[in-house]
Amino acid sequence: MSFEFTKEELEYIEELSQRYPSPKALMLPLLWIIQNRLKHIPTEAFKAVADITKTSEAQVYGVVTFYTMFTLKPTAKYHIQLCKTLSCNLCGSKELLNLLKERFNLLPNQQNGDFQLTLVECLGSCGTAPVVQINNRLYENLTPAKLQKILEDFS
Amino acid sequence: MKEVKIVSKRFDIEGINHIKKAIEHGAYSTIHKMFDKDPKTIVDEIDKSGLRGKGGGGAPTGAKWKLMLQDFKLPKVLVINCDENEPGTFKDRQIISKDPHLLIEGIILTSYAIGANDVYIYIRGEYHQWQNILQKACDEAYLQGYLGKNILGSKYRVDITICKGAGAYICGEKSALLESLEGKRGHPRLKPHQKEPEWYFGRPTLVNNVETIATVPFIVENGADAYKEYGTSKSPGSMLFAMSGHINNPGVYEAEFGTSMMEYIEYYGGGIKGGNLKGVIPGGASTPILNATEVAKAKLDYESIKELGSSLGTGGMIVMNDSVNMVEALKNLLEFYHHESCGQCTPCREGTAWVDEIVESMLRYSASYNSIEQLLQIGQTMNGKTICVFAPAVSGVIDGFVKKFRSEFEEYLRGVCNE
Ligand SMILES: Cc1cc2nc3c(=O)[nH]c(=O)nc-3n(C[C@H](O)[C@H](O)[C@H](O)COP(=O)(O)O)c2cc1C
Ligand code: SF4
Ligand code: FES
């Protein structure tokens, strides 16, 4: 499988490059374009990124693996990111985890059909704990019942 | 309890995200008068106000700005730190979602004061909803002529670019943030020996937190003395403090420095939820925990919390009631640090893994008899020997939990053979 940026993407990248003093700064924006489109960063795409940013494929690889939101494998249709850090933990993230395990057969870092569960660190929403992010959307002040309803509405 | 509304003054106004509404309520008024001022007078006013950075370190803002006033070969850059991922901290998010134009106004004033035309806002990758709000607000400000070339018909240009992080706690540290903005792994840089600006592709750069910049319009509009009317002599003004954990009304509320912690918790937080108070982590997860006796004495300012052996940090308090098992709570935080160490320094990379493992083995009742000493000792090895203050912070966190709640740790070692 080969990878190419689409025409629209290339136009956007050209526009973006005007805003930075060096093409190297385009690294994260380019990776975001790929991650958003393909739900992962295939190794085939490293060369295209390296060419635009004037870096090497090895450097691209190093960056991709440093940041937790870039993934080398595609994420499932619904990527459930459950915050497990202290404030959420104090407010019941464990009960949410139990629900996901028992009711939806989901274990951390595993996929089950359209769903995938990842335990993540603080999402910056501790005041409305416990929280879960599903794809790009944050769900706050959750209870097991609320989370169950949200997931049932998806399937 | 004296209520203060400096940064949060427009938080409750419906539709304030739209520029028309924001302008009706006074947004951007300082920009119309800005060009009558010599940029240096703005820097002096900020310096005089005693404003301290709200990103966690509390560094005097004026001193940092002054470093930008020298002559440099390359253009200057302003970077806004909206990485906000210190556990317990969720205040910058409030500014962006509840009054984004206040931040943009602060950015325009700051960039004019230090002479930067290019501004980058580094916002954490997970904040999708807030990135959209911020982008919309910027687009509106461009349309209204507050951003872009020739601001309000002047010769002055300011361009804001929003850059997304991608899930790395360490990228909140300012030099790691700049590495990330340069397209690299977020590895903190070695600190220079003398005070100097930060550097972005060799360009002199100022990095400030969102809330710091959102405070600038008030000071420019009302003067340094008006700001100093609030707070204490060493911690002037106010801050957006936050509460999470076992509290009846968690959230972000502005208070002046020097406010009693307990009064704040009672007044805004509606008291402790589900039991009696056991401890409070005062300023984001990286600050040492305070026990209930210390909380009773604590005041919300840099000096008072420092006297208690902790630090004010980001002002994000994590409140715990007496049902909390402190060994489990420490384990929770150590997992965080283990995951987030950037891995450059051996004491930090290895140390965070070891301490996590030791506390884990305690919880499984399989720890060695001297594991408390081991924990403290590894903490010592992590302190003062690394590139950034991440590792020393972990050391302080371990010390706090172990020294203040030692008996709980000893419980897990009961019956362990002393060999
Ligand atoms: C490990 C670590 C994480 C940090 N995270 C943040 C952060 O998320 N947001 C922030 O504004 N500052 C953070 N800081 C502080 C920044 O390095 C820097 O001091 C701050 O952005 C400067 O702005 P200020 O002076 O306006 O506070 C962090 C520091 C360290 C050591
Ligand atoms: S102390 Fe830790 S986080 Fe900081 S630079 Fe060293 S390894 Fe990275
Ligand atoms: S601890 Fe879960 S959002 Fe901060």
What is the topological layout?
The complex is a heterodimer of chains A (155) and B (419).
Chain A (H helix, E strand, L loop, with lengths): L6 H11 L9 H12 L7 H8 L3 H10 L11 E6 L2 H5 L2 H10 L7 E3 L2 E6 L11 E3 L2 E3 L4 H11 L1
Parallel strand pairs in A: 1-3
Antiparallel strand pairs in A: 1-4, 2-3, 4-5
Chain B lengths: L18 H6 L4 H6 L4 H11 L11 H6 L9 E7 L9 H7 L1 H15 L1 E8 L4 H16 L15 E6 L9 H8 L16 E3 L2 E7 H13 L1 H5 L9 E8 L5 E6 L4 H7 L9 E5 L8 E2 H6 L4 H6 L8 E6 L4 H15 L5 H18 L7 H12 L7 H15 L1 H6 L8
Helix pairs in contact in B: 3-6, 5-6, 6-9, 14-15, 14-17, 15-16, 16-17
Mind explaining what this structure looks like?
- The complex is a heterodimer of chains A (155) and B (419).
- Chain A is α+β, with helices and mostly antiparallel strands and 155 residues long.
- Chain A folds into 2 domains: 7-66, NADH-quinone oxidoreductase subunit E (Arc Repressor Mutant, subunit A); 78-154, Glutaredoxin.
- Chain A is built from 7 helices and 5 strands; from the N terminus they run ααααβααββββα.
- Chain A has helices at residues 7-17, 27-38, 46-53, 57-66, 86-90, 93-102, 144-154, and strands at residues 78-83, 110-112, 115-120, 132-134, 137-139.
- In chain A, strands 2-3-1-4-5 form a 5-stranded mixed beta sheet, with helices on one face.
- In chain A, a hairpin with a 2-residue loop joins strand 4 and strand 5.
- In chain A, helix 3 packs across helix 4 (57-66).
- The longest helix of chain B has 18 residues, at 346-363.
- Chain B folds into 3 domains: 19-228, NADH-ubiquinone oxidoreductase 51kDa subunit (Rossmann fold, 3-Layer(aba) Sandwich); 241-321, Ubiquitin-like (UB roll), CATH 3.10.20.600; 326-413, de novo design (two linked rop proteins), CATH 1.20.1440.230.
- Chain B is α/β, with parallel strands linked by helices and 419 residues long.
- In chain B, the strands form 2 sheets. Chain B has a 5-stranded mixed beta sheet with strand order 3-2-1-5-4, with helices on both faces.
- The radius of gyration of chain B is 22 Å and the shape is globular.
- Classes of the chains: A alpha+beta (155), B alpha/beta (419).
- At the A-B interface, helix 2, helix 4 and helix 5 of A face strand 3, strand 6, strand 10 and helix 14 of B.
- FE2/S2 (inorganic) cluster binds next to helix 5 of chain A.
